[in-house]
Amino acid sequence: MTALSVATVTPNGGNPREVVVQVSALIGGRSLIAVGPEGTSYPELRDRVYAGITNSGLTWPDRKFVISFAPVGPWSVHPSTDLAVTAAVLAAAGHLPFTALSETVFLGEVGLDGAVRPVPETLALVAAAAELECRTVVVPAANARQAMLVPGVHVIAVNSLSEFVAWANTGAEPPLPAPLDIGAMAGGGPAEAGLAHLPAWMSPARFALEVAAAGRHHLGVTIAPGLSGTLIAECVRSLLPDLDDRQAVELSALYAAAGQPVDALIRRPPLQAPVPATSVTSMIGGRRPGAVSLAHRGVLLLHDAPDFSPEVLQALRQPLDRRIVQVARARDTITFAADVQLVATSRPCPCSTSHIPVDGCSGPARRRYRNQMHSISDRLDIGVTVEPAAFGGIPGESITTVAAHVVTARAAAAARWAQEGFSTNAEVSIDVLRRPAFRIPASATSGLRRMVEVGQVTARAYDAILRLAWTVSDLHGAGYPDKEAVNAGVELYHPRRHTD
After folding, report:
1. Over the stretch 386-408, which tens digit does the pLDDT of each residue have?
2. Dihedral (C-alpha) 258, 264, 266, 272: value to the nearest 10 degrees?
3. Angstrom distances, CA of residue 364 to CA of 345, 371, 500
4. pLDDT tens-digit map of 347-391
C-alpha cells in the first residue's frame, strides 16, 4: 500500500482554507473513490481525474485509489482540488516523483481532455497559500498572471496534465506570461486617479468630506437638485490613499472571483454606484461577490438612497457593522469581505428634482421620505447638506492638498490603534475608546453628555461623535481630542437629525 498527502486550498465560501488531500493506493481493481463528510462520494471528481489522466496518454495502473480530505467539510472538495488529487494519483502510480509534491500547493480544475482549466478564485487561493507560507504554487496557465500578482510566491503555470508531468519529472518550468506592467500595478496618486480639484459648489462641505476620508466615516449627503451625488462620492474616493500590497491583493481577488479580468493589482480604492433598482442578490452577492464587496476598501455610493428597496437597505446593515457579507446556503455559508465607506445621498424632499423647486412637499411627506432609509441612517456618522446657495465663483481646493491632510491624519490614527488591531477611527470599538488611555476628558465631553441626558443624542450617536472627535483631532495635528474637536464632531453628526 502507498499513502501520501498533497496540499491545496479551497475557497471555503469566500474564506480560503488549506486542505490536505490524502491518497492511498490499494492493490487490485482499477478505480478511484473520493470520500467526503458523512461518507459523501464525488463521482464528478472521479470521472474528471480518471478521464484527464487516461486522455493525456498516461496509463492507469491496476490499483484502487482511495481519496480523503483533511479537514473534512463542505468546503473540502471544489474544482480547485482536481489538480492536487490528480498529482497524488500520478505520484502513487509512478508517473512522477513524490518529491515534486513537497512544499507545493496545487490549484486547478482538470478537464476530461487532460487540460488544466482555470479557477476564478485563483488569486484569493494563492494569496491564502502565501499567508500559510507556501512559497510554490502550481496553477492553470490561464490564471498565471493573477497568481503572479501575489508577492513572494513562486508560480508554476501549466496548460495540461502532460505539461504538468513533464515539469514534475524534469524540473523545467513552462514559460510564464510576460512581466506585468509595474506602472499599472503601482497606481497613481489621488489627484491623478480621480479629480484634480474639489468643485466650487462643494467648498462648504469640504471639511465634512475631509473628515469622512480621514476617519473612514460613513457620509450622508442631502443634495440640492442638479448637483451630482456621483461627483461627491468621487471626491471622497479621490482623497483616499492607495491600497497597500495586502489590501490590493484582497480587492483584486474579489474582482477576479466576480469574473472580471484582473491583469494588475487594483491599487486605487474602488467606487461602486448601484442603482436604486438593484436587487438584494446583486448588492450583497451569492456565489459571486456583489456590489458591496466590489466596493471593498473603497466607496459604496447609494445615490437617492431612500429610493432603494427596504430589503436592500436592511441587508446592508451586516456589512456596515461587521465589514463582511455572509450568504447562507443549503450546505455552507459564503463569506466575502465588504469593508466599505458608505456615501448615501438624498434629496431635500421627494418631489425635488432638477425641474421642480425644493421644499415643495409638506413636513410629513419629507419625514416619510427620510424614514425610507431608516435601516442605515444611524450608520451614517456624518450628515452634510449641499445647498443651491453653495454655487459661486470660489475656486475649488486642490485634491492633492486635502489628500495630504488625510494621509497625515490616517497615519496618526493607524499608529495609535495599531496595538488594538484597528487602522482608522471609524472602526475602533467603543470598549477601546472607554479605556483610561483613550478616554476623552470629561471637560471636553460635558456638553455632549448633557445632550445624551436630555435625549438630543442617542448612545450610538455619542459613540460616533467620539470617533469623529478623534478624526478632527488627527486632522488638526493634536495628540488628544479637546472640547473644540468634540463640538466639531457634534456639528458634523447632528445637522442631519434636524432635517425634516
Report:
1. 876 544 444 556 788 888 999 99
2. -40
3. 20, 10, 8
4. 877 776 544 445 556 667 777 777 788 889 889 999 988 876 544
Which grid cell is 326?
455572509
Q: How many residues does the chain have?
A: 500
C-alpha 195: how far from chain center:
23
Cβ atoms of residues 292 and 339 within 8 Å: no
Q: Are strands 219-223 and 382-386 parallel, antiparallel or unpaired?
A: parallel
pTM to 2 decimal places = 0.83
- pLDDT for position 196: 62
Cβ neighbours around 57 below 10 Å, total: 10
278, pLDDT greater than 90? yes
DSSP 425: G
Residue 155: the pLDDT is: 94
Q: For residue 70, which phi and psi values (nearest 5 degrees)?
A: -135, 125
Determine contact, residues 218/340, Cβ cutoff 8 Å: no
* Spatial CA neighbour of 193 closest among 229, 243, 257, 145: 243
Residue 179 predicted with pLDDT over 80: no
Whose cell is 469622512? That residue is 212
Give the closest residue to 426 by CA, choosing from 466, 477, 473, 459: 466
At 432-468, the pLDDT tens digits run 999 999 999 999 999 999 998 888 888 889 999 999 9
Angstrom distance (rounded) from CA 193 to CA 491:
31
Sheet strands (E) in 289-433: 299-302, 324-328, 333-337, 341-346, 382-386
Q: Is the predicted pLDDT of residue 469 greater than 70, yes or no? A: yes
Q: How far is CA 26 from CA 32, 37, 49, 65, in A?
A: 10, 21, 17, 6
- How is residue 500 written as a grid cell? 425634516
93 in Cβ contact with 25 (< 8 Å): yes
319: cell is: 456589512
| Count of H-run helices and E-run strands, the chain | 21, 16
- CA dist., res. 500 & res. 348, Å (int): 8
Cell numbers of 328, please? 447562507
Residue 298 has pLDDT above 60, yes or no: yes
Label residue 453 exposed, middle or buried (CB < 10 Å: 0-12, 13-18, 19+). Answer: exposed
